[in-house]
Write a structure and sequence with these properties.
The longest helix has 15 residues, at 80-94. Strands 3-2-1-4-5-6-7 form a 7-stranded parallel sheet, sandwiched between helices. Helix 5 (111-125) links the parallel strand 5 and strand 6 (129-135). With 286 residues, the chain is α/β, with parallel strands linked by helices. The protein contains 12 helices and 7 strands. It folds into 2 domains: 2-135, Rossmann fold, CATH 3.40.50; 136-168 and 193-256 and 268-286, UDP-galactose 4-epimerase, domain 1 (Alpha-Beta Complex). The chain is globular, with a radius of gyration of 19 Å. Residues 5-6, 8-12, 32-34, 52-54, 72-76, 83, 102, 104, 135, 137-138, 141, 169 line the site of NADP nicotinamide-adenine-dinucleotide phosphate.
């Protein structure tokens, strides 16, 4: 039995959809906060269990009988580490044999990076088998940046031109389903990345191609970015959170060439440049 958490979210739902093509649905259960939103999975014969990481007993019940659980990282709010710790402790209490975790690129610059580092440590310290999937920056996030840049006529973000091996969310899901459905991933850490490194200048180039005119990447000054975000109604703490993330993207930490997607799934990783171009252009056409 495999239990997948976060199955009402984007990544979790994709993982379950890939997984049900690989193993019998009777071997899959999902753990979600709102079971009524998983009716389509239930209709396929997948067992729906209700749990919230803030309530460890609920997660323990959801993990009961599972050999493997996939813990999908949650929102990144200030108490995310304790949510993740609850899920890890619940896996131990429920007698799970192998914990899988969708982590992030290794870096300590951002709050998110530190959350993943502490969660990975907690998982490894359980002594159970583990598989950690360090998902790089979703190319889907860069689609949003391209759309904004085309609309604004400029790509202005508080970042330098560090490269990132950005990966599509679908490829992250396919890789997760592959490791869940096959043997041999005990105590492994995989960098789940796209096949090419893109810089913010490359992202501006994609925006320029879509716009049919030059869209320059001009790093935003931190103060100007903060003022703009506060004017849009974001609290200071959220702006700090974003500034740290952009700093991490610029640091080079996200440039982690890896062939893990191809090796795990048996098909090449989606070229990020094509994906971002195609998806942003389609969205802007509507
Ligand atoms: N690599 C990247 O670029 C990148 C970008 C964004 C996010 N992420 C990380 O990747 C994760 C998955 O991405 P995604 O696109 O699938 O995000 P998503 O659609 O926001 O899904 C997040 C999932 O976490 C669940 N969740 C949140 N708080 C929870 C709690 N207290 N207990 C149990 N479940 C909880 C949500 O449940 P509900 O459905 O009930 O709300 C949802 O299913 C995110 O949560 C985030 O940690 C990575």
């Amino acid at each position: 039995m495999i239990v997948v958490t976060g199955a009402n979210g984007n990544l979790g739902r994709m993982v379950v959809n890939f997984l049900k093509d690989r193993i019998p649905v009777s071997e899959i259960a999902v753990s979600v906060r709102e079971p009524e939103k998983a009716a389509d999975l239930s209709a396929h014969g997948i067992e729906i269990r209700q749990a919230d990481f803030r309530d460890r007993a609920s997660v323990m019940r959801a993990f009961t009988g599972a050999d493997k659980v996939l813990i999908i990282s949650t929102s990144g709010a200030s108490d995310t580490v304790s949510e993740h710790r609850n899920a890890v402790d619940a896996a131990v209490e429920a007698g799970v044999k192998h914990i899988f975790y969708t982590s992030g690129t290794k870096e300590k610059i951002s709050h998110i990076g530190r959350v993943h580092e502490q969660t990975e440590k907690a998982i490894i310290e359980t002594g159970l088998n583990y598989t950690i999937l360090r998902n790089n920056l979703y190319a889907d996030v860069l689609v949003r940046e391209v759309i904004s840049a085309v609309k604004a006529g400029i790509l202005s973000i508080p970042a330098d031109d560090g490269k990132m091996t950005t990966v599509t969310r679908v490829d992250c899901a396919a890789a997760a389903a592959a490791v869940l459905a096959t043997d041999g991933h005990q105590n492994k850490i995989y960098d789940i990345t796209g096949p090419e490194s893109l810089s913010w200048n490359d992202i501006a180039e994609i925006a320029s191609e879509i716009a049919g005119k030059e869209i320059a990447f001009i790093p935003a000054l931190t103060d100007a970015f903060r003022k703009g975000m506060i004017a849009k109604g974001l609290p200071d703490s959220r702006v700090d959170f974003l500034l740290e993330i952009y700093k991490a993207y610029s640091s080079g930490a996200y440039d982690v060439p890896s062939d893990a997607v191809a090796v795990l799934t048996g098909r090449p990783a989606t070229p990020a440049r094509d994906f971002i171009f195609r998806t942003a252009r389609e969205a802007l056409a509507h």
